[in-house]
Amino acid sequence: MSKLIYAFNDENSSGKDLLGGKGANLAEMTRLGLPVPDGFTITTEACNAYLASGESLTSVLLEELSDAILSLETRTGKTFSDEDNLLLVSVRSGAKFSMPGMMDTVLNLGLNDENVEKLAAKTRDARFAYDCYRRLLQMFGEVVYGIHMSVFDTIFESYKEENKYELDTDIPADGLKEIVEKYKEVYLEETNKTFPESPIDQLTEAVEAVFKSWNNERARIYRDLHDIPHDLGTAVNIQEMVFGNSGDNSGTGVLFTRNPSTGEHKLYGEYLLNAQGEDVVAGIRTPQEIEVLNTQMPEVYEELVGITKNLENHYKDMQDIEFTIENGKLFILQTRNGKRTASAAVKIAYDMVQDGVISKEDAIMMVDPKSIDQLLHPQFDDEALETAERISEYGLPASPGASTGMVVFSTERAKELGEAGEKVILMRPETSPEDIEGMVVAEAIVTTHGGMTSHAAVVARGMGTCCVTAVSDLKIDGENGVATYANGVLKEGDIISVNGSTGKLYLGEITKKDQEQSTEFAEFMTWAKEISRMDVRMNAETSKDINAGFEFNASGIGLVRTEHMFFQEERLIGMRRFILAQNHAERVAALDTILEYQQSDFEEIFRLSGERPVIVRLLDPPLHEFLPHTENEINNVANQLGVTTELLKSYITNLNELNPMLGHRGCRLAITYPELYEMQTEAMLKSLIKLKKEGIETNLEIMIPLIVTAEEYKTLSDKIKARAESIEAEAGVKVNYTVGVMIETPRACLTAEEIAPLADFISFGTNDLTQLTFGFSRDDAGKFIGEYVDGALMETDPFQSLDINGVGQLVKMAVEKARAHNPNYKVGVCGELGGDPRSIQFFNDIGMSYVSCSPYRVPGAMLAAAQSVVK
Ligand code: ADP
Ligand code: MG
Ligand code: MG
Question: In what order do the strands lie in the sheet with 39-42?
């Protein structure tokens, strides 16, 4: 086996794998010439060998350890027994990834009854020496012997109380001596062992304790939660002590090189004079803000500022630094890349590019695409959330945001109250296209069923409306207009708050924090757009959404769903007449009543988009969705249409399908009723012609959904083109349009070489393709998919992140088949996976021309697309 121990200044040491994060950075800082107390690191391999050998320290390790101590003694000119130059060390654990739950640090190791007197004599400060000793006894007792810290704390606090000392630093040397004696008794009482007086024994026991702590339960749970492998092992750092507690010219502190919540370029941190280790964070005394150091110790402050710049330039990232000052001399004890909020991440990345520290590519890699959501949607105030009363424990964060409003249980009430200016939360078991008007006015949508791709979730994300689905511990009783939860009942009008970013519901109103987009963010996003190879389009149809998406720099529209153009009141009648029609002429007449509405809808979309490409998907849902369901509605509609209730009901029964997801929908509708797509084509073409006459250029891409065969595609596209040409001829104007195919069935993937040459473009619909490849209904999969993901039967929910090995391979194959005859063939993805970073990486790698997702996911997708290129 290779070397088990590396000194911090060893030229040949490197890497977090072997040295752990803390050790690697201590070595790095030593090489940079920073004031780091000397020391050495025992490798993670030594830890693994220890654990593998049934937890015993091998003679090889013991030998290397004693050599390492000898050379540390030589380098520092100190030893574990020298009365003038006494060596004391800290023992610090440090795995590759920072991991709470591992063994804590032991400071002042090497002290014993004899050495403490030597330290007192040498420093002429018995108080200081005994303060170090009592700290060692506490830390060693806790982390090596497992004695609860509260046992020591109780002794310490009651001593202060009995003697009326307010601060730790008020206790004189004699008092600390007394406390030390009591601590030693604790060892006997709690463990039947005495405190080991020999420094070498202290050291080996501490090292073993660090090794063992790798496998303690807290550490294991943490690793499971964060997908950290269990076989990495931890390193141990042994480092010469420096003393922040040796008087008022000493101290200890922590700082971030920039503000971790706003990103402001200004040191952010705290320190305490005459203190050691974790005193700063333990809240024993109130720490000072870091700038105050500039007045207390200007030279130290200046040196610290220089070092923070040096470290940032070296690591090219914001640093989280721990330091100690001993008698006016500064030491750096730790540095690592600092954790930060999303807005801080963007600001820091931006500023570092401006300062020439990093490239735009580096900056792009510094921000997590998933965190971008936080910047676009309002958020609740964190403190207010903690004290708020929770309504539910379960619920999926289907569409981010933070909303407060009054509960309503129906679309009608949502409309009435919403139009009267009230803020409403629409609460339903699940939503259907008929709820659209209620959903539009709602501040938030809550459903007790459905999952991340349910109707409510998809529509809400599209609108940027806050939405929580699958709140399984809330029961809606629509009849009585109440919803019950574990601790109570909600009635219409009750005020609740919905957190779409976490899936949690709260009683009452919760204060929000401001969410304004910075100029830095806008600029940062233009870099992402420059760097990415793929375009990012939006899925949108309302002007509000389209404007939002273009605001975020979407390069076009990847999916206009035309369903909603059939669902508003007046059009629904036309559609219902169409369904009840007896022949072609009647069908055309019924559709004619919808034509003009659609034409003006399209006109608005095309006007907003101009020359940017727009894909319009022709009608997709099964016809029964357009018919009424409840007895009451059926009566009303029969009246409206002038037919008998019985007749209407017979149509409803006829259209009823055992498996509507696999039934008469998508392009199959137009095979039966070509009039549908012809009407939609006419509406689109007429609006294009109108715009062209106004001098507005456009770029329409007509898309046929759910295609399974080349013949089917040819039949339909011929009819569409024929209608388009006749409209053009009639007007004497030529406009810009192409016709393409939505590939969302496995068969279409398998036969893409037949279909693609007939079409101008392909767009993959990943929701249906996933559903059909797995044979999982996406509306029902929510009931069991959790078990697959939790039980590691599946890595991720395939409706949330692309199933690369299955669905992904179908997509890849289809792209290859399509590109075989034309390497530049345009292929894209619409559907929610187009907004998922992991899926985006795959789409980039297989050469997709663009991805498309709901407007509020566009910035995150753009960032992920840029990262895919840099990676
Ligand atoms: P953590 O991983 O919990 O941050 P550390 O190993 O960084 O644990 O130790 C915690 C604190 O102990 C440090 O921030 C520092 O204040 C103190 N400390 C560690 N080693 C030394 C040392 N050699 N000299 C002085 N203080 C030390
Ligand atoms: Mg700690
Ligand atoms: Mg630390």
Answer: 5-7, 39-42, 234-240, 89-95, 106-109
Smallest CA-to-CA distance from 64 within 82, 51, 46, 79 is with 46
Instruction: Please state, in angstroms and as integers, the Cα–Cα distance from residue 60 to each residue in 1, 4, 184, following that order.
Output: 10, 9, 33
Query: Going by CA atoms, what residue is nearest to atom 7 of ligand 1?
Result: 334
Q: Find, among 204, 203, 186, 182, the residue nearest to 194 by Cα.
A: 186
Query: Would you call 830 a catalytic residue per the annotation?
Result: yes
How large a percentage of the chain has pLDDT more than 90? 78
Residue ranges in 732-857 assigned as alpha helix (H): 746-750, 752-755, 766-774, 782-790, 807-821, 837-845
Ligand 1 first shell, C-beta below 6 A = 37, 90, 92, 105, 107, 239-242, 252, 277-278, 322, 324, 333-334
Residue 380, beta-bridge partner list: 512
Residues 6+ apart with CB under 8 A from 656: 624
Q: How far apart are CA 33 and CA 722, in angstroms?
A: 77
In this predicted model, what pLDDT tens digit does every residue of 829-852 receive, in sequence order? 998 899 999 999 999 999 999 999
Active-site choice (132, 749, 830, 853): 830
Cβ 626 vs Cβ 590: under 8 Å? no
Distance 786 CA to ligand 1 centre (A): 41
* Structure confidence at residue 183 as a pLDDT band (50, 70, 90): very high
In the set 455, 624, 749, 853, the catalytic residue is 455
SS3 for 10? coil
Q: Are 282 and 259 in contact (CB under 8 A)?
A: no
For residue 636, what pLDDT is reported?
Answer: 92
Q: How do residues 430-440 score in pLDDT, each as one tens digit?
A: 888 778 889 98
**Global pTM value:** 0.82
The residue count of the chain comes to: 871
DSSP 63-80: HHHHHHHHHHHHHHT-BS
pLDDT higher than threshold 80 for residue 493: yes
Ligand nearest to the CA of 240: 1
Task: State percent of the chain over pLDDT 70.
Answer: 98
Q: Which are the contacts of 20, defined by CB distance < 8 A and separation ≥ 6?
A: 41, 44, 93, 94, 95, 96, 234, 235, 237
**CA 840 to CA 808: how far, in whole Å?**
11
